[in-house]
Amino acid sequence: MSLLDRRTVLIAGVAVTLAGCSDSKDAGSTASPTPSATAPSSTTPPPSTTVPTTTPSSTPSTSAPTLTSTAPNWNTFARSLTGRVYLPSTSGYAAAHQLFNPRWDSVRPTAVVKAANPADVQKAINFARTNKLVLVPKSGGHSYVGASTIANGLQLDIGALKGMSYANGVLTVGAGARLYDVHAFLDRYGRSLPTGTCPTVGVAGLTLGGGMGIHTRTYGLTCDRVVSMGVITADGKAHNVSATSESDLFAALRGSGGGNLGVVTSFQFATIPATKLGFFRLTWPESQAPAVVRGWQQFARSAPTTVWGNLHIDAASNGTLSIRVLGVSTTGDATAAAAQLEGFVGAKASARTLSVKSHLEAVKYLGGGTTSPRQGFLAGSDVLEGPMDSATILVLLGAVKAAARAGTPASAILDPLGGQAAKEPAGGSSWPWRGALGVIQWYSSAQGKSAQTFISNGHRAVGSASAGGYVNYVEAGRAVSSYYGGSAAKLQAAKKKYDPTNFFHTPYTLG
Ligand SMILES: Cc1cc2nc3c(=O)[nH]c(=O)nc-3n(C[C@H](O)[C@H](O)[C@H](O)COP(=O)(O)OP(=O)(O)OC[C@H]3O[C@@H](n4cnc5c(N)ncnc54)[C@H](O)[C@@H]3O)c2cc1C
Hints:
Layout: H1 3-7, E1 8-11, E2 14-17, H2 24-28, H3 74-80, E3 84-86, H4 93-96, E4 111-114, H5 118-130, E5 134-138, E6 153-157, E7 164-167, E8 170-174, H6 179-187, E9 191-192, H7 203-208, H8 216-219, E10 226-232, E11 238-242, H9 247-253, E12 263-270, E13 272-273, E14 277-284, H10 289-302, E15 307-315, E16 321-329, H11 335-345, E17 351-357, H12 359-367, E18 378-384, H13 390-405, E19 411-416, E20 438-444, H14 449-462, E21 466-468, H15 488-498
Parallel strand pairs: 4-6, 5-6
Antiparallel strand pairs: 1-2, 3-4, 7-8, 8-12, 9-13, 10-11, 10-12, 14-16, 14-17, 15-16, 15-19, 18-20, 18-21, 19-20
The structure holds flavin-adenine dinucleotide.
Protein backbone atom coordinates (compact mmCIF):
# COMPACT_ATOMS: atom_id res chain seq x y z
CA MET A 1 0.00 0.00 0.00
CA SER A 2 1.03 3.59 -0.35
CA LEU A 3 2.24 4.95 2.93
CA LEU A 4 1.54 8.42 1.68
CA ASP A 5 -2.08 7.56 1.23
CA ARG A 6 -2.24 5.53 4.38
CA ARG A 7 -1.03 8.54 6.33
CA THR A 8 -3.18 11.09 4.61
CA VAL A 9 -6.87 10.99 5.39
CA LEU A 10 -9.41 13.45 4.20
CA ILE A 11 -11.09 14.92 7.19
CA ALA A 12 -14.03 17.16 6.28
CA GLY A 13 -12.38 17.75 2.94
CA VAL A 14 -9.05 18.80 4.39
CA ALA A 15 -5.97 16.62 3.95
CA VAL A 16 -4.45 15.86 7.34
CA THR A 17 -1.14 14.05 7.57
CA LEU A 18 -1.01 11.44 10.27
CA ALA A 19 2.04 10.35 12.17
CA GLY A 20 4.48 8.46 10.02
CA CYS A 21 6.27 5.23 9.90
CA SER A 22 9.54 4.50 11.57
CA ASP A 23 11.21 2.86 14.45
CA SER A 24 12.55 6.14 15.74
CA LYS A 25 15.63 4.75 17.42
CA ASP A 26 17.01 2.28 14.95
CA ALA A 27 15.95 4.03 11.79
CA GLY A 28 17.68 7.22 12.73
CA SER A 29 20.94 5.46 13.33
CA THR A 30 21.13 3.65 10.02
CA ALA A 31 24.56 4.13 8.56
CA SER A 32 24.95 4.98 4.92
CA PRO A 33 25.90 1.82 3.10
CA THR A 34 28.96 1.87 0.88
CA PRO A 35 28.69 0.80 -2.74
CA SER A 36 32.03 -0.93 -2.64
CA ALA A 37 31.20 -3.30 0.21
CA THR A 38 31.62 -6.86 -0.88
CA ALA A 39 29.28 -8.74 1.43
CA PRO A 40 26.63 -7.98 4.01
CA SER A 41 28.49 -6.51 6.87
CA SER A 42 27.45 -5.03 10.13
CA THR A 43 28.30 -1.85 11.86
CA THR A 44 30.42 -2.70 14.85
CA PRO A 45 28.55 -2.12 18.07
CA PRO A 46 30.34 -1.59 21.35
CA PRO A 47 32.05 -4.68 22.74
CA SER A 48 29.94 -7.20 24.57
CA THR A 49 28.39 -5.65 27.54
CA THR A 50 28.70 -6.96 31.04
CA VAL A 51 25.18 -7.61 32.10
CA PRO A 52 23.79 -7.52 35.61
CA THR A 53 23.94 -10.86 37.36
CA THR A 54 20.46 -10.51 38.78
CA THR A 55 17.82 -12.78 37.35
CA PRO A 56 15.61 -10.75 35.00
CA SER A 57 12.38 -9.63 36.58
CA SER A 58 9.24 -11.36 35.43
CA THR A 59 7.48 -9.76 32.48
CA PRO A 60 3.82 -8.98 31.86
CA SER A 61 2.03 -11.94 30.37
CA THR A 62 1.01 -11.89 26.71
CA SER A 63 -0.69 -14.50 24.60
CA ALA A 64 2.74 -15.84 23.65
CA PRO A 65 3.69 -19.28 24.93
CA THR A 66 5.85 -19.33 28.02
CA LEU A 67 8.77 -21.66 28.52
CA THR A 68 10.56 -21.67 31.84
CA SER A 69 14.04 -20.22 31.87
CA THR A 70 16.52 -22.29 33.84
CA ALA A 71 18.70 -19.45 35.12
CA PRO A 72 20.62 -18.76 31.93
CA ASN A 73 24.15 -17.51 32.36
CA TRP A 74 23.74 -14.14 30.68
CA ASN A 75 27.24 -12.92 31.48
CA THR A 76 28.98 -15.80 29.76
CA PHE A 77 26.62 -15.51 26.84
CA ALA A 78 27.12 -11.74 26.53
CA ARG A 79 30.90 -12.16 26.58
CA SER A 80 30.68 -14.62 23.71
CA LEU A 81 29.01 -12.07 21.43
CA THR A 82 30.27 -9.23 19.30
CA GLY A 83 26.87 -7.64 19.78
CA ARG A 84 25.05 -6.79 23.01
CA VAL A 85 22.59 -8.21 25.49
CA TYR A 86 20.00 -6.02 27.19
CA LEU A 87 18.22 -7.27 30.29
CA PRO A 88 15.34 -5.31 31.84
CA SER A 89 17.81 -3.82 34.32
CA THR A 90 20.29 -2.78 31.59
CA SER A 91 20.42 0.85 30.55
CA GLY A 92 18.95 1.14 27.07
CA TYR A 93 16.61 -1.84 27.46
CA ALA A 94 13.44 0.30 27.11
CA ALA A 95 14.46 1.57 23.68
CA ALA A 96 16.04 -1.72 22.66
CA HIS A 97 12.87 -3.78 22.90
CA GLN A 98 10.50 -1.36 21.16
CA LEU A 99 8.72 -2.11 17.93
CA PHE A 100 7.26 0.34 15.43
CA ASN A 101 3.79 0.16 16.96
CA PRO A 102 3.81 1.50 20.55
CA ARG A 103 0.98 -0.85 21.49
CA TRP A 104 3.66 -3.52 22.09
CA ASP A 105 5.79 -1.45 24.45
CA SER A 106 4.32 -3.22 27.45
CA VAL A 107 5.61 -6.58 26.21
CA ARG A 108 8.95 -6.99 27.95
CA PRO A 109 11.28 -9.71 26.68
CA THR A 110 13.48 -11.52 29.19
CA ALA A 111 16.39 -10.22 27.13
CA VAL A 112 17.08 -8.37 23.91
CA VAL A 113 20.09 -9.57 21.96
CA LYS A 114 21.41 -7.18 19.36
CA ALA A 115 23.37 -9.39 17.01
CA ALA A 116 26.35 -7.86 15.23
CA ASN A 117 26.90 -10.65 12.72
CA PRO A 118 25.55 -14.08 11.69
CA ALA A 119 27.79 -15.79 14.29
CA ASP A 120 25.93 -13.88 17.00
CA VAL A 121 22.66 -15.11 15.54
CA GLN A 122 23.91 -18.68 15.75
CA LYS A 123 25.03 -18.18 19.34
CA ALA A 124 21.70 -16.64 20.33
CA ILE A 125 19.75 -19.50 18.82
CA ASN A 126 21.96 -22.08 20.53
CA PHE A 127 21.73 -20.20 23.84
CA ALA A 128 17.94 -19.91 23.66
CA ARG A 129 17.57 -23.58 22.76
CA THR A 130 19.85 -24.70 25.59
CA ASN A 131 18.04 -22.52 28.09
CA LYS A 132 14.58 -23.34 26.81
CA LEU A 133 13.82 -19.75 25.94
CA VAL A 134 11.44 -18.84 23.14
CA LEU A 135 13.31 -16.73 20.57
CA VAL A 136 11.74 -14.27 18.13
CA PRO A 137 13.73 -12.48 15.43
CA LYS A 138 13.27 -8.75 14.89
CA SER A 139 14.38 -6.86 11.79
CA GLY A 140 12.38 -3.69 11.11
CA GLY A 141 9.99 -4.30 14.01
CA HIS A 142 6.81 -3.53 12.01
CA SER A 143 4.90 -6.71 12.75
CA TYR A 144 1.20 -5.93 13.01
CA VAL A 145 0.77 -8.25 15.99
CA GLY A 146 4.05 -7.59 17.75
CA ALA A 147 5.39 -10.97 16.65
CA SER A 148 8.96 -9.68 16.83
CA THR A 149 8.82 -9.19 20.56
CA ILE A 150 7.91 -11.63 23.29
CA ALA A 151 7.38 -11.70 27.02
CA ASN A 152 9.36 -14.40 28.81
CA GLY A 153 11.56 -14.93 25.81
CA LEU A 154 14.51 -13.68 23.84
CA GLN A 155 14.11 -10.96 21.23
CA LEU A 156 16.88 -11.32 18.66
CA ASP A 157 17.39 -7.98 16.93
CA ILE A 158 19.33 -8.33 13.68
CA GLY A 159 18.99 -4.65 12.74
CA ALA A 160 22.77 -4.18 12.70
CA LEU A 161 23.14 -6.70 9.86
CA LYS A 162 22.44 -4.11 7.20
CA GLY A 163 25.49 -3.98 4.95
CA MET A 164 24.91 -3.91 1.19
CA SER A 165 26.81 -4.59 -2.00
CA TYR A 166 25.85 -4.61 -5.66
CA ALA A 167 27.29 -6.41 -8.63
CA ASN A 168 25.94 -7.58 -11.98
CA GLY A 169 22.35 -6.72 -11.23
CA VAL A 170 22.36 -8.52 -7.89
CA LEU A 171 21.95 -6.80 -4.53
CA THR A 172 23.44 -8.54 -1.51
CA VAL A 173 21.95 -7.11 1.65
CA GLY A 174 22.01 -7.87 5.35
CA ALA A 175 18.55 -8.91 6.57
CA GLY A 176 18.39 -6.02 9.03
CA ALA A 177 18.31 -3.31 6.35
CA ARG A 178 15.33 -0.98 6.07
CA LEU A 179 13.53 -0.27 2.81
CA TYR A 180 14.57 3.36 2.32
CA ASP A 181 18.22 2.47 2.79
CA VAL A 182 17.92 -0.30 0.23
CA HIS A 183 16.40 2.09 -2.32
CA ALA A 184 18.90 4.86 -1.63
CA PHE A 185 21.76 2.39 -2.08
CA LEU A 186 20.40 0.88 -5.30
CA ASP A 187 19.69 4.32 -6.74
CA ARG A 188 23.45 4.89 -7.00
CA TYR A 189 23.54 2.11 -9.57
CA GLY A 190 20.35 3.08 -11.39
CA ARG A 191 18.65 0.02 -9.92
CA SER A 192 15.62 -0.65 -7.75
CA LEU A 193 13.66 -3.48 -6.13
CA PRO A 194 9.93 -4.15 -5.91
CA THR A 195 9.11 -3.48 -2.25
CA GLY A 196 6.45 -1.94 -0.07
CA THR A 197 6.48 1.77 0.59
CA CYS A 198 7.23 2.35 4.27
CA PRO A 199 10.85 3.58 4.55
CA THR A 200 11.52 1.84 7.85
CA VAL A 201 9.93 -1.56 7.22
CA GLY A 202 12.59 -4.26 7.42
CA VAL A 203 13.60 -6.00 4.24
CA ALA A 204 13.43 -9.34 6.11
CA GLY A 205 9.86 -9.22 7.40
CA LEU A 206 8.56 -7.75 4.15
CA THR A 207 10.31 -10.26 1.90
CA LEU A 208 9.56 -13.37 3.94
CA GLY A 209 5.83 -12.57 3.89
CA GLY A 210 5.70 -11.67 0.17
CA GLY A 211 6.12 -7.92 -0.24
CA MET A 212 3.54 -5.95 -2.21
CA GLY A 213 4.02 -2.50 -3.72
CA ILE A 214 3.85 -0.39 -6.85
CA HIS A 215 6.04 -2.76 -8.88
CA THR A 216 4.11 -5.90 -7.95
CA ARG A 217 2.31 -6.24 -11.27
CA THR A 218 5.33 -5.39 -13.41
CA TYR A 219 8.06 -7.32 -11.58
CA GLY A 220 6.38 -9.51 -8.96
CA LEU A 221 6.56 -9.56 -5.17
CA THR A 222 9.70 -8.78 -3.23
CA CYS A 223 10.07 -12.48 -2.39
CA ASP A 224 9.95 -13.34 -6.11
CA ARG A 225 13.18 -11.39 -6.66
CA VAL A 226 15.18 -13.35 -4.05
CA VAL A 227 18.08 -15.27 -5.57
CA SER A 228 19.49 -16.74 -2.38
CA MET A 229 19.34 -16.33 1.39
CA GLY A 230 21.63 -16.92 4.33
CA VAL A 231 19.53 -18.53 7.05
CA ILE A 232 20.26 -20.06 10.42
CA THR A 233 17.93 -22.82 11.50
CA ALA A 234 16.80 -23.95 14.94
CA ASP A 235 19.77 -26.31 15.31
CA GLY A 236 22.13 -23.34 14.90
CA LYS A 237 23.29 -24.43 11.44
CA ALA A 238 23.96 -21.82 8.74
CA HIS A 239 22.52 -22.52 5.29
CA ASN A 240 22.82 -20.71 1.99
CA VAL A 241 19.57 -21.56 0.26
CA SER A 242 18.66 -20.96 -3.37
CA ALA A 243 16.79 -22.59 -6.23
CA THR A 244 19.62 -25.14 -6.44
CA SER A 245 20.57 -25.54 -2.78
CA GLU A 246 18.01 -26.72 -0.22
CA SER A 247 15.38 -25.53 -2.62
CA ASP A 248 12.53 -26.66 -0.36
CA LEU A 249 13.62 -24.26 2.39
CA PHE A 250 14.28 -21.55 -0.21
CA ALA A 251 10.76 -21.84 -1.61
CA ALA A 252 9.17 -22.13 1.84
CA LEU A 253 10.85 -18.95 3.05
CA ARG A 254 9.58 -17.00 0.03
CA GLY A 255 6.12 -15.98 1.25
CA SER A 256 5.46 -17.88 4.47
CA GLY A 257 6.08 -14.93 6.77
CA GLY A 258 8.95 -14.27 9.16
CA GLY A 259 9.68 -16.13 12.34
CA ASN A 260 8.70 -19.58 11.11
CA LEU A 261 11.62 -21.56 9.74
CA GLY A 262 14.85 -19.87 10.77
CA VAL A 263 16.53 -16.51 11.08
CA VAL A 264 17.49 -15.07 7.72
CA THR A 265 20.74 -13.12 7.95
CA SER A 266 21.17 -12.00 4.33
CA PHE A 267 19.41 -11.85 0.98
CA GLN A 268 20.53 -11.69 -2.60
CA PHE A 269 17.99 -10.01 -4.89
CA ALA A 270 17.73 -9.74 -8.66
CA THR A 271 17.24 -5.99 -9.02
CA ILE A 272 15.15 -4.06 -11.55
CA PRO A 273 15.88 -0.85 -13.47
CA ALA A 274 15.24 2.37 -11.52
CA THR A 275 13.10 4.07 -14.15
CA LYS A 276 10.99 7.19 -14.02
CA LEU A 277 7.49 6.48 -12.81
CA GLY A 278 4.23 8.08 -13.89
CA PHE A 279 1.76 8.75 -11.07
CA PHE A 280 -1.95 9.49 -11.14
CA ARG A 281 -4.26 10.30 -8.30
CA LEU A 282 -7.99 10.28 -8.97
CA THR A 283 -10.77 11.21 -6.56
CA TRP A 284 -14.50 10.62 -6.89
CA PRO A 285 -17.45 11.77 -4.78
CA GLU A 286 -18.99 9.28 -2.36
CA SER A 287 -22.02 8.89 -4.62
CA GLN A 288 -19.75 7.14 -7.16
CA ALA A 289 -18.23 4.75 -4.61
CA PRO A 290 -19.92 1.50 -5.84
CA ALA A 291 -18.97 2.32 -9.45
CA VAL A 292 -15.37 3.07 -8.43
CA VAL A 293 -15.01 -0.27 -6.63
CA ARG A 294 -16.47 -2.11 -9.62
CA GLY A 295 -14.24 -0.14 -11.99
CA TRP A 296 -11.14 -0.74 -9.87
CA GLN A 297 -11.83 -4.48 -9.95
CA GLN A 298 -11.98 -4.42 -13.76
CA PHE A 299 -8.83 -2.33 -13.79
CA ALA A 300 -7.05 -4.82 -11.52
CA ARG A 301 -7.97 -7.60 -13.92
CA SER A 302 -7.43 -5.86 -17.26
CA ALA A 303 -4.94 -3.01 -16.93
CA PRO A 304 -1.51 -3.59 -18.50
CA THR A 305 0.98 -5.23 -16.16
CA THR A 306 2.98 -2.00 -16.27
CA VAL A 307 0.16 -0.32 -14.36
CA TRP A 308 -0.74 -0.52 -10.69
CA GLY A 309 -3.30 1.39 -8.65
CA ASN A 310 -4.61 1.04 -5.15
CA LEU A 311 -8.05 2.12 -4.04
CA HIS A 312 -8.57 3.91 -0.75
CA ILE A 313 -11.97 4.03 0.85
CA ASP A 314 -11.50 6.20 3.92
CA ALA A 315 -13.88 7.14 6.70
CA ALA A 316 -13.80 10.93 6.96
CA SER A 317 -14.45 12.56 10.30
CA ASN A 318 -17.61 14.28 9.02
CA GLY A 319 -19.21 10.85 8.55
CA THR A 320 -18.68 10.68 4.77
CA LEU A 321 -16.45 8.46 2.62
CA SER A 322 -13.39 9.61 0.74
CA ILE A 323 -12.78 7.58 -2.43
CA ARG A 324 -9.54 7.74 -4.39
CA VAL A 325 -7.06 5.72 -6.40
CA LEU A 326 -3.32 6.27 -6.39
CA GLY A 327 -1.87 4.78 -9.55
CA VAL A 328 1.57 4.21 -11.01
CA SER A 329 2.76 3.40 -14.50
CA THR A 330 6.20 1.86 -14.69
CA THR A 331 6.50 3.13 -18.29
CA GLY A 332 6.53 6.68 -16.92
CA ASP A 333 3.30 7.82 -18.55
CA ALA A 334 0.20 7.47 -16.40
CA THR A 335 -2.22 9.38 -18.65
CA ALA A 336 -3.56 6.36 -20.48
CA ALA A 337 -3.83 4.35 -17.27
CA ALA A 338 -5.86 7.07 -15.57
CA ALA A 339 -8.18 7.29 -18.57
CA GLN A 340 -8.58 3.51 -18.62
CA LEU A 341 -9.60 3.51 -14.96
CA GLU A 342 -12.09 6.31 -15.52
CA GLY A 343 -13.50 4.28 -18.42
CA PHE A 344 -14.02 1.24 -16.18
CA VAL A 345 -15.64 3.42 -13.50
CA GLY A 346 -17.87 5.05 -16.11
CA ALA A 347 -17.31 8.52 -14.64
CA LYS A 348 -14.58 11.11 -14.80
CA ALA A 349 -12.78 11.75 -11.54
CA SER A 350 -13.82 14.88 -9.69
CA ALA A 351 -10.16 15.68 -9.01
CA ARG A 352 -7.00 14.38 -10.63
CA THR A 353 -3.28 14.92 -10.50
CA LEU A 354 -0.67 13.47 -12.82
CA SER A 355 3.07 13.59 -12.25
CA VAL A 356 6.35 11.96 -13.24
CA LYS A 357 8.95 11.15 -10.60
CA SER A 358 12.45 9.75 -10.58
CA HIS A 359 13.07 6.52 -8.70
CA LEU A 360 14.16 8.10 -5.43
CA GLU A 361 11.60 10.90 -5.66
CA ALA A 362 8.93 8.23 -5.99
CA VAL A 363 10.30 6.28 -3.02
CA LYS A 364 10.18 9.40 -0.84
CA TYR A 365 6.77 10.44 -2.14
CA LEU A 366 5.22 7.06 -1.40
CA GLY A 367 6.97 6.74 1.94
CA GLY A 368 6.24 10.26 3.08
CA GLY A 369 9.99 10.92 3.35
CA THR A 370 13.01 8.88 4.27
CA THR A 371 11.86 7.98 7.78
CA SER A 372 9.02 8.76 10.12
CA PRO A 373 7.95 8.28 13.73
CA ARG A 374 6.39 5.26 15.41
CA GLN A 375 2.67 4.82 14.94
CA GLY A 376 -0.15 2.98 16.68
CA PHE A 377 -2.73 1.14 14.60
CA LEU A 378 -4.84 -1.98 14.30
CA ALA A 379 -5.25 -3.72 10.96
CA GLY A 380 -6.26 -6.91 9.20
CA SER A 381 -6.78 -8.17 5.67
CA ASP A 382 -8.73 -10.26 3.22
CA VAL A 383 -7.46 -11.68 -0.04
CA LEU A 384 -9.94 -11.32 -2.89
CA GLU A 385 -9.93 -14.33 -5.15
CA GLY A 386 -11.97 -12.51 -7.76
CA PRO A 387 -14.24 -9.50 -8.19
CA MET A 388 -16.84 -8.85 -5.49
CA ASP A 389 -20.46 -8.73 -6.64
CA SER A 390 -22.50 -5.55 -6.29
CA ALA A 391 -24.16 -6.65 -3.05
CA THR A 392 -20.80 -7.39 -1.41
CA ILE A 393 -19.44 -4.03 -2.55
CA LEU A 394 -22.35 -2.26 -0.86
CA VAL A 395 -21.77 -4.13 2.41
CA LEU A 396 -18.04 -3.30 2.24
CA LEU A 397 -18.82 0.38 1.74
CA GLY A 398 -21.34 0.13 4.58
CA ALA A 399 -18.63 -1.17 6.92
CA VAL A 400 -16.43 1.88 6.28
CA LYS A 401 -19.47 4.18 6.44
CA ALA A 402 -20.44 2.76 9.84
CA ALA A 403 -16.95 3.56 11.10
CA ALA A 404 -17.20 7.08 9.62
CA ARG A 405 -20.53 7.67 11.37
CA ALA A 406 -19.06 6.36 14.64
CA GLY A 407 -16.12 8.74 14.31
CA THR A 408 -13.63 5.87 14.00
CA PRO A 409 -10.66 6.58 11.74
CA ALA A 410 -10.83 3.69 9.27
CA SER A 411 -9.72 2.75 5.79
CA ALA A 412 -10.28 -0.11 3.40
CA ILE A 413 -7.26 -0.15 1.10
CA LEU A 414 -7.44 -2.39 -1.96
CA ASP A 415 -4.11 -3.39 -3.54
CA PRO A 416 -4.14 -5.14 -6.92
CA LEU A 417 -2.24 -8.33 -7.64
CA GLY A 418 -2.00 -10.02 -11.04
CA GLY A 419 0.58 -9.40 -13.73
CA GLN A 420 3.98 -10.79 -12.77
CA ALA A 421 2.71 -11.55 -9.23
CA ALA A 422 0.36 -14.12 -10.75
CA LYS A 423 3.36 -16.15 -11.98
CA GLU A 424 5.24 -18.53 -9.75
CA PRO A 425 8.90 -17.41 -9.79
CA ALA A 426 11.73 -19.72 -10.84
CA GLY A 427 12.75 -21.71 -7.77
CA GLY A 428 9.21 -21.70 -6.39
CA SER A 429 7.64 -19.88 -3.47
CA SER A 430 5.07 -20.38 -0.74
CA TRP A 431 3.07 -17.24 -1.60
CA PRO A 432 -0.37 -18.79 -1.97
CA TRP A 433 -2.32 -16.05 -3.74
CA ARG A 434 -1.01 -16.17 -7.32
CA GLY A 435 -4.49 -16.25 -8.84
CA ALA A 436 -5.99 -13.57 -6.62
CA LEU A 437 -7.37 -10.23 -7.76
CA GLY A 438 -6.01 -8.27 -4.83
CA VAL A 439 -5.78 -7.72 -1.10
CA ILE A 440 -8.03 -5.56 1.08
CA GLN A 441 -6.40 -4.10 4.13
CA TRP A 442 -8.67 -2.98 6.98
CA TYR A 443 -6.74 -0.30 8.80
CA SER A 444 -7.52 1.97 11.73
CA SER A 445 -5.27 4.31 13.67
CA ALA A 446 -7.68 3.88 16.56
CA GLN A 447 -6.59 0.84 18.48
CA GLY A 448 -9.40 -0.05 20.80
CA LYS A 449 -12.79 -1.67 20.47
CA SER A 450 -13.98 0.67 17.72
CA ALA A 451 -11.07 -0.33 15.50
CA GLN A 452 -11.67 -4.02 16.16
CA THR A 453 -15.36 -3.58 15.36
CA PHE A 454 -14.45 -1.98 12.03
CA ILE A 455 -12.05 -4.79 11.14
CA SER A 456 -14.56 -7.49 12.13
CA ASN A 457 -17.26 -5.73 10.09
CA GLY A 458 -14.86 -5.61 7.15
CA HIS A 459 -14.17 -9.35 7.34
CA ARG A 460 -17.89 -10.07 7.55
CA ALA A 461 -18.63 -7.72 4.66
CA VAL A 462 -16.45 -9.53 2.15
CA GLY A 463 -17.18 -12.93 3.69
CA SER A 464 -17.36 -15.51 0.93
CA ALA A 465 -15.29 -13.38 -1.46
CA SER A 466 -12.28 -13.78 0.86
CA ALA A 467 -9.78 -16.57 0.24
CA GLY A 468 -7.77 -15.84 3.40
CA GLY A 469 -5.40 -13.18 4.71
CA TYR A 470 -2.03 -11.67 3.76
CA VAL A 471 0.56 -12.92 6.25
CA ASN A 472 2.36 -9.55 6.34
CA TYR A 473 -0.91 -8.08 7.63
CA VAL A 474 -1.26 -10.83 10.24
CA GLU A 475 -3.84 -10.26 12.94
CA ALA A 476 -4.72 -11.75 16.31
CA GLY A 477 -7.53 -14.25 16.63
CA ARG A 478 -7.28 -15.59 13.10
CA ALA A 479 -6.30 -19.16 12.20
CA VAL A 480 -2.67 -19.25 11.03
CA SER A 481 -3.72 -21.60 8.22
CA SER A 482 -5.85 -18.83 6.68
CA TYR A 483 -2.62 -17.15 5.51
CA TYR A 484 -1.34 -20.14 3.61
CA GLY A 485 -4.08 -21.36 1.28
CA GLY A 486 -2.72 -24.08 -0.99
CA SER A 487 0.82 -23.74 0.39
CA ALA A 488 -0.06 -25.08 3.84
CA ALA A 489 1.04 -28.70 3.23
CA LYS A 490 4.35 -27.64 1.67
CA LEU A 491 5.02 -25.33 4.59
CA GLN A 492 4.19 -27.93 7.20
CA ALA A 493 6.64 -30.31 5.51
CA ALA A 494 9.37 -27.65 5.59
CA LYS A 495 8.59 -26.86 9.22
CA LYS A 496 8.86 -30.53 10.16
CA LYS A 497 12.16 -30.89 8.33
CA TYR A 498 13.91 -27.66 9.36
CA ASP A 499 12.35 -27.00 12.77
CA PRO A 500 11.29 -30.45 14.02
CA THR A 501 11.14 -29.37 17.67
CA ASN A 502 9.05 -26.29 16.85
CA PHE A 503 11.73 -24.05 18.32
CA PHE A 504 10.37 -21.03 16.42
CA HIS A 505 7.00 -20.92 18.05
CA THR A 506 4.54 -18.11 18.72
CA PRO A 507 0.75 -17.91 18.23
CA TYR A 508 1.49 -16.65 14.71
CA THR A 509 3.82 -19.37 13.46
CA LEU A 510 3.30 -22.67 11.69
CA GLY A 511 3.25 -25.46 14.18
C1 LIG B 1 3.65 1.33 8.27
C2 LIG B 1 3.67 0.01 7.56
C3 LIG B 1 3.65 -0.02 6.18
C4 LIG B 1 3.67 -1.24 5.51
N1 LIG B 1 3.62 -1.26 4.14
C5 LIG B 1 3.65 -2.45 3.50
C6 LIG B 1 3.63 -2.50 2.07
O1 LIG B 1 3.60 -1.47 1.40
N2 LIG B 1 3.65 -3.72 1.47
C7 LIG B 1 3.68 -4.87 2.18
O2 LIG B 1 3.71 -5.94 1.58
N3 LIG B 1 3.72 -4.86 3.53
C8 LIG B 1 3.69 -3.67 4.20
N4 LIG B 1 3.71 -3.65 5.57
C9 LIG B 1 3.71 -4.92 6.30
C10 LIG B 1 5.14 -5.40 6.50
O3 LIG B 1 5.59 -5.99 5.32
C11 LIG B 1 5.16 -6.47 7.62
O4 LIG B 1 4.69 -5.90 8.81
C12 LIG B 1 6.56 -7.04 7.78
O5 LIG B 1 6.47 -8.27 8.46
C13 LIG B 1 7.46 -6.10 8.57
O6 LIG B 1 8.78 -6.55 8.56
P1 LIG B 1 9.80 -6.00 9.65
O7 LIG B 1 11.09 -6.68 9.41
O8 LIG B 1 9.74 -4.53 9.65
O9 LIG B 1 9.09 -6.45 10.98
P2 LIG B 1 9.50 -7.38 12.20
O10 LIG B 1 8.46 -7.06 13.21
O11 LIG B 1 10.90 -7.21 12.59
O12 LIG B 1 9.31 -8.84 11.65
C14 LIG B 1 8.07 -9.32 11.15
C15 LIG B 1 8.03 -10.84 11.34
O13 LIG B 1 9.16 -11.44 10.72
C16 LIG B 1 10.00 -12.08 11.68
N5 LIG B 1 11.37 -11.77 11.31
C17 LIG B 1 11.98 -10.56 11.39
N6 LIG B 1 13.23 -10.66 10.96
C18 LIG B 1 13.44 -11.94 10.59
C19 LIG B 1 14.54 -12.63 10.04
N7 LIG B 1 15.67 -12.01 9.80
N8 LIG B 1 14.40 -13.95 9.77
C20 LIG B 1 13.24 -14.58 10.01
N9 LIG B 1 12.15 -13.97 10.53
C21 LIG B 1 12.25 -12.65 10.80
C22 LIG B 1 9.58 -11.51 13.01
O14 LIG B 1 9.84 -12.42 14.08
C23 LIG B 1 8.10 -11.27 12.80
O15 LIG B 1 7.39 -12.47 12.95
C24 LIG B 1 3.69 -2.45 6.24
C25 LIG B 1 3.74 -2.40 7.64
C26 LIG B 1 3.71 -1.19 8.29
C27 LIG B 1 3.70 -1.16 9.79
